[in-house]
Amino acid sequence: MIQGLTAAASGMAAEDRLEQLLSNNLANQETPGFKASVGELIEDPVFAMERYSYGDGADGIGIGEMGGGVDFQEGVPSFSEGGLQTTGRPLDLAIVDAVTSGEVAYVLAPQGAKPVAGPVTVGMGGRLTAGGAPLAVYGPDGQPVQGLFAVRNPAYQGSELLGEGGMPAYDAAGRPSYVFENASGQVVYTPGSETDDPYAIRVGSAEDMGYHAFLPVNYTDASGQSGLAVTRDGALQLNAENVVVDAAGHAIAPLDPAGRLLVGGRIVVNPLYHGTQIFSQNGTPVYDSNGQPSFRVYNAQGQLVPGGRIGLVDADVTQLQPLGEGEYMVGGSYQAAAVEPLLGASTAKMVFGALEGSNVDVAATMAQMMQALNAYEANQRVAQSVDSVLNIAATDIGKVQGG
What we know:
There is one protein chain. By secondary structure, the chain is an alpha+beta fold. It is 16% helix and 30% strand. It has 3 helices and 27 strands. It has a 6-stranded antiparallel sheet, with no helix packed on it. A 3-stranded antiparallel sheet has the order 8-7-15, with no helix packed on it. Strand 18 and strand 19 form a beta hairpin. The longest helix is centred in the C-terminal third of the chain and has 34 residues, at 362-395. It is globular, with a radius of gyration of 27 Å.
């Protein structure tokens, strides 16, 4: 009975957090470059059920599992592109990714793992591969495990290689489509053997995995600590010093002529420039009839960088965490020394005089909010019913009626 109360309470808490996430999505429907988040709910806790034959001292026989509640796991941003909106404003910049759809898988690399375009196929030795490289296997800590491989299960009789989100597909006999082997070909783990599989591969779509393009930002937190972040919001502005900044007021970090990121650098618009266009198509300055450049680039030491420009960097979206106002932390840190190695040169396109709209689907979000509200109220009614029964059990059952 108490378990029913806690399960209903967990459902109410999870739906409340989901409602907050959806409300934030809806509130940012007009924010340029905003990426709507998708709420992920997981069954937690999960209890194993066993059948016992009392009196013989034998161990129980597993007969399945029973969920004891639900938890809001995380909000995962969807990086599908919003529509382009032409503004004609010279400081507006829309980002158009080079790859916007298709399958993405994470493969083994010298640095650990990296995303590549799919599809996933069966390679030498039965190993699952993408782009000619074996898929990376992640351990319980979420980090790649060296020397471990996902290998097609020879006993599997199904037709599908992968299930949803890279999970194994299962045949009619319950056999998984792949197992995990070490470098010697020994099976280390068979998916489905435990309630929570300790190993996994990462396969998904370009909307929620892989590299996407961003503007690099010289980020400063509330305590004054500086570092590096990224943003998709191209509604750029000028501060009091004519420095190009994002919506949060943080300076856009420029690139040098070789495309290297100038951490701590800044782009300063020239007040003597008399033109209508600020950036050329490749992000370099334009010049007016008097030979004045539209802007100049300075490094962190305040030195002029000839040929410097505004530009984009690529970041793996699975390593991003929202900071607010359209900015993202990369790799769990904004310390430049930790972030810079995670950023790569971008092949995306910049469209000046335009903005990328948010990817919020207003109608779908409203429907999801109503669904979350209905689920919250249903759990609330369950909690009230359980409370009523408990009250009867505590006050009425066993009561001796007066004669």
